Amino acid sequence: MHISHNAQSCFAAPAVVVFGCGNILLGDDGFGPAVIEQLLQSGLPETLQAIDAGTAIREYLLDFLMLPALRPALLIVADAAGVEGGVPGQVRVCDPADLPARKIHDFSLHQFPTVNLLRELQAETGVKVVLLLAQTASPPAAVLAPGLSPSMRTAVDEACRRIIDIVAPFTTLEAAAP
Questions:
Q1: Cα-Cα-Cα-Cα dihedral sign, residues 80, 84, 87, 92
Q2: pTM of structure
């Protein structure tokens, strides 16, 4: 829950937070929000919170850095990213530290300087950060139109399956609790 929008004084942080990042008006850049929409339609366990962060993930990350009570154990970020030589629609899982230094500044417009925040969140707080990045066919800003390409639509399905696999230990723990 974003602190500036939180009117409640008592809030239990979920075990897992999944952020979908991107701008739905820029074609394949809407990958992250599409992942969140599909996750929400499938029904989620109470230990998982899915948030369409649009292009404002930095505010949430700063909240996690500042307030330990809001921090999840696991943070997953779904986003579109173009990597030279990548296959359109390919989904890769990586750690913020896996991104080359040159990619920190051009990862995507809504991420800058978020990769550094993700690295700091993981290093300083112990929150595990996983990036799910889907390869775009062209730079996201090149297409000013809503809607995903067929390869990115398929990538949404794959990303949701991977998220379910990644969070399985957290949902199993919830089911085992008395």
A1: negative
A2: 0.83
